[in-house]
Structures are given as structure tokens and as C-alpha cells.
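Example record used in the benchmark description.
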Amino acid sequence: MQRTDAELIRRSREADGDAFAELVRRYEKRVFGIVYRMLNDHTEATDITQETFIKAYTHLDQFDDERPLMPWLATIALNLARNLLTSAWAKRQALDDNLSCSPSEFTRLEVLDEVQSVLSHLTPEQREVIVLRHISDLTYEEIAGVTGEKISTVKSRLFEARQRIKLLRTHEEAKL
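Model output (C-alpha cells):
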């Protein structure tokens, strides 16, 4: 019989490491998927995923048992990914300013799969809502809770992102 998240959380709070390990196994792929789609870097996504669960464990006493666990984990993961993206952008800017080189000289060439390629053409805000809605299957309400935005803003960003994806597909088809 599979134990509920609430039971596993309660046992984790009582220092049952096996209970928390089960929560990690249950959610690590979904958390990794969110982070990887945001960062497009396997190593960084692995690190942020681990950091997400460490932070969740150390703040488990702050989790509201009445709420589902995945949106809370997604919030932690997105905040950590945003922080990394912000610091990486600042470092690139500092390098560019100090060395007077173009940003393209500092970027790695990577082979992108189709989804990652499309996501890279979206704004960070659009990318977040697309990943949370279509990859992590969160509801509009859950996405609003994760991002701190109103549901209408979430819906608007999803609409804009979907329109941009359609435009990108049309553009790619025209090239063929």
C-alpha cells in the first residue's frame, strides 16, 4: 500500500529519513524536468533539484499539510533556478563589460531537442508557465501560487507563449 504524501511528510518531520527519501523518489523527476526546462543544463538542473529537496527538508515545518506538495516543491525549484539565471546573467554582463567581448563568445554550443529549442525562444515568464502547465501538469491555480501571479496573468502568459510557439512553428515550416 502506497503511503500518502501527508503521511510521508509527517514521518519526515519525525526524522524518518526513509519517508523523505520516498518523497524524493516520488517527485524528483518532475522537479528535475521543471528545472532542466528553465536552465537547459543537465548538471545545473541536477544541482538545483538536489538543492530543492534539501531546502524542502530543512523547511518542512513550514509546509502547509492541507496543500499539495508538488506546487510547493515547484516554487522552491523555480526560485532557485531564477536565482541561478540572474547570477549567471550578471556574471556574463560583467565579463562582457570587462573584456568588451560579445556575449556569443561566452556561450556554449549545445544540441537542443525540439522542446528545449522552442522554450529558448520564450521569455522567462512564458517559459515558466509553459513548463508548469504542460510539462508539470499544474493547474492555473497552482501555477498562480507558484509564481505569485494572478490567475488572469497566468492565463495571459500562457496565451502569449502559445501564440509565440505557433509563430515559431509557422516560421520553421516556411523555411522547409
